[in-house]
Amino acid sequence: MSGTLISSLVWVPRGKSSTEPKRYNLDDTELERVGKLGGPGVLEQLREEMEGMDVGEGEDWEDVDEDDEEGSGSDSDNEDAEVDGGDVDMDTEPQEPPKPSDPNDLSAFKMDEYDNEESKGVAMGAFANVKGLSFYRDNNEDPYITLKENDEEIEREELSLLPTDNIIITARTTSDLSSLDFHVYADSDENLYAHHDLMLPTFPLCVEWLDFPPGGSSSSSSSKGSYVAVGSFDPSIEIWDADLVDGLYPEAILGPSPSSEKPEAKPLGTGKKKRKQMVQPAANDQYHTQPVLSLSWTPNHRNLLLSGSADGTIKLWDLTRESPMPALKSWNNIHKGEKVQGVEWNKSTSNGLDKAVLSAGWDRIVKVWDSRAPEDAIGTQVGSDVECIRWDPWEPTSFFVSLENGLILAYDSRTLSSSKGSNNLSTAQPKYTLSAHDGAASALDINPHIRGCIATGGMDKVVKIWNILDEESEGVQGRKREISLATSRDLGLGKIFTARWAPDPETPLTIAAAGSKATLQVWDVASNPGARKAFGDRLKKHGRELGEVKKGGGVVVVEGGEDEDTDEE
């Protein structure tokens, strides 16, 4: 399908998902929770909608639908007209959004124009479409549900998971809708299939998995679950229950109440030219006011979530607070008000590094700083726009940066603090530089199971696996560093926007990737002879063996999806 993409993905570790996912139930308890989550007036509005949509005996669904349309004209009629600010000819057949002829052409999404779009001050989050929703207390009365009560046992079996299954969550957008798609990956039988999805009201930009029950939903900090945080064009962050099927509302909202007016861009002035120049909402300490570009969670501080935004701020959220919640802390000057492209916790537990943060902005500056003392941040200037940042899980003081010019830079943060220039930025050079892609290196991940194994993906549509041999990876003192391409593959995904290694040691060379064709694929890199030769001995040192070579070069596509031609080197 043209005009579609997957912007981000995240793995759920094995054993972290419920083996029996729950189906959403809008009962009285849930109504009370949603009412508190939505803010003043939402609970009453929901109850009115539910009472108004109950279908009585002898009353046709069409009659109810017509009555609802007549009674809601003041709130929802001409919704499309409000978007354009002009009149709509109701006799004219609605036109679909233009779709690009090139499957890799992303112009339909107008990603480079979102700063200039004038917001209407309408809630864009999970409560954006409360008006017009239809509720039924009994699924047997809902004309849109064909699965009735006597089929629930069959459905329960179909939704059940094995403890060895992985869930992969992708943020997908087409020309007319956005969603979180939950896929099941079973390594033992090389199976990848869609499990369920959640509709999103706006374009998702980043996703992060966490196990902490948010929004005061649990009285015990030791309680665990499976949740996914979503950053999008809407400045509020939503956290959804990943074990809940067909959920309507998130578990928590990080930001203002959905019932309050959203910050909106305003024209620079009243003149013809100034009306076209939009002034974005000013940043504040309580919540983000522009799109959320990056999220990071760490098991070292389970109740804390970091976020970076186009409003130039980095915020810290305490998930024990009731939702909707304000930020616990806000750092507004780490990148001097420039958009924050990436932020990541250091997941090490040694020497206080668990409180270290890595961030990158559109000022082309990458910084390392202690969340307790951000004023002591150290940074370095890079020569191109930053695409991705990653801490090195094998050397917790080191980090990697991927750039728009296709380069990968490796730094040791200890050298940054010892070589500051006049502008308080480090003059230290990278440990090494890797020319990875023709075009932007838009995806980057460091293998947590094999030292010296790096995955990159680019706008050149190729996923590459790099082998870094040095004295640390080889355990040989004085070993000269060697960098080589272990293998690469065009997976038929279009431009690569995201690629992440599996988190489980049982699948040390398994990677998931996606991009401009909105297709997810899982690649067992160990099925490639070059990769087996490069990394097999290193795994043996850790007491593990590579699995058997899998058919199809180790590439697993979504069940029922289109098979793509792939090219491997």
UniProtKB/TrEMBL annotation:
WD repeats lie at residues 285-327, 434-468. One of its GO terms (biological process) is rRNA processing. InterPro entries: PWP1, WD40/YVTN_repeat-like_dom_sf, WD40_PAC1, WD40_repeat_CS, WD40_repeat_dom_sf, WD40_rpt. The keyword Cell inner membrane does not apply. The keyword Phosphoprotein applies. Residues 17-35 have a biased composition (Basic and acidic residues). Keywords: Phosphoprotein, Repeat, WD repeat. This is Periodic tryptophan protein 1. Signal peptide: none annotated. Residues 1-109, 253-284 are annotated as: Disordered. It comes from the Eukaryota. SUPFAM superfamilies: WD40 repeat-like (SSF50978). GO terms for cellular component: nucleus. Pfam families: WD40. Residues 51-94 have a biased composition (Acidic residues).
